[in-house]
Amino acid sequence: MGQTIRFGVSLDSDLLEKFDALCEERCYQTRSEAIRDLIRGTLVQKEWEDLNKEMVGTLTLVYDHHHSDLAQKMTEIQHSSLDVIVTSLHIHLDHHNCMEVLILRGPGQEIKATAERLISTKGVKHGKLNLATTGQDLT
């Protein structure tokens, strides 16, 4: 971690008021912590632009497991993506619906391709890829 540097930020008073309310709502003790998190968030988004870089993320899928051969198709896709799927969690939401959460790690383009294949599988009701960082480039 590098040296801490102080710097000033000029903001419109209305914008600062909204930011302070957000800081309080999210339990930040200081504006500095909130600003650091905003900067880190932006850097992580920038990191995802390089699809060759090592990434991590979660993929959440909701589907009706009674839908024809959906479970078999999803299993086949997952088995063909063992290099990026670290683990998965399967939850029975009710008699018909299941939620599956997959932890993914690997080159960004492979994570994205795997997620798109699973989300677009006929019978998947909802799919969401949540991207994160390995933390290697953040302090």
Automatic annotation (TrEMBL):
Q: Keyword annotations for this protein?
A: DNA-binding, Metal-binding, Nickel, Transcription, Transcription regulation
Q: How is the cofactor bound here?
A: Binds 1 nickel ion per subunit.
Q: What is this protein called?
A: Putative nickel-responsive regulator
Species of origin? Desulfomicrobium norvegicum (strain DSM 1741 / NCIMB 8310)
Tree of life domain? Bacteria
Gene Ontology biological process terms in this record? response to nickel cation
GO MF annotation: an example: DNA-binding transcription factor activity
Specify which residues bind Ni(2+) according to the UniProt entry for this protein.
79, 90, 92, 98
Q: What does this protein do?
A: Transcriptional regulator.
